[in-house]
Design a protein that fits this description.
Blueprint: H1 16-27, H2 29-42, H3 44-56, H4 69-81, H5 87-142
C-alpha cells in the first residue's frame, strides 16, 4: 500500500483550514463534494458552510479546483520546445516535429477534400430528388 505525499504550495506555518483546503484541492472537485456530503450527514451546518464556501470560491462551477490543467499543459509544451543540451537529440526532435507537422497538414487537407466530396454528393442527391419531385408534380398536373 502506498501513501500519498503532501506537496501543495502551502507554507509550513499555515493553519489547519489552509492545509485542509490544499489537501482537498489536490484531490479535485469530487473530494470537495464528498466533504460537503459528509458534512451534511454528520452535522448539517458544516455541509451548508462547505456548500456556501464552494460556491463563493467558485470551486463548484470551475473545471478544476485550483490547479489549472492549462497551466500544466503550457508548462509541458514549453519544456518540449526547450533545447535539451544534446545536439543530436535536439536535431532528431526538430526533424520529428517537422515530419509530424507535415503529416498533420496532409491529413487536414485530406479531411477537407473528404468534406468537400461529401458535400458535393449530398448536394447532387438533393438536386436529383428535387428534379424527381418536379417531374412528379408536372406528371400529376398533366393528368
Amino acid at each position: 500500500m502506498t501513501t500519498a505525499t503532501y506537496s501543495a504550495d502551502v507554507p509550513a506555518n499555515a493553519g489547519w483550514f489552509s492545509k485542509s483546503e490544499a489537501w482537498l484541492d489536490q484531490r479535485g472537485k469530487g473530494a470537495w463534494i464528498a466533504a460537503m456530503v459528509l458534512g451534511f450527514i454528520f452535522f448539517w451546518p458544516v455541509g451548508l458552510a462547505l456548500l456556501a464556501y464552494m460556491i463563493w470560491s467558485k470551486r463548484m462551477f470551475s473545471k478544476s479546483c485550483r490547479h489549472s490543467s492549462h497551466r500544466n499543459a503550457r508548462r509541458t509544451a514549453w519544456s518540449a520546445m526547450k533545447p535539451s543540451g544534446n545536439t543530436a537529440f535536439d536535431a532528431y526532435k526538430a526533424e520529428t516535429l517537422q515530419r509530424l507537422q507535415t503529416e498533420q497538414e496532409a491529413f487536414e487537407s485530406f479531411l477537407e477534400r473528404l468534406r468537400e466530396a461529401k458535400d458535393k454528393t449530398e448536394f447532387d442527391q438533393f438536386m436529383d430528388d428535387r428534379e424527381k419531385r418536379a417531374k412528379e408534380v408536372m406528371a400529376t398536373e398533366d393528368a
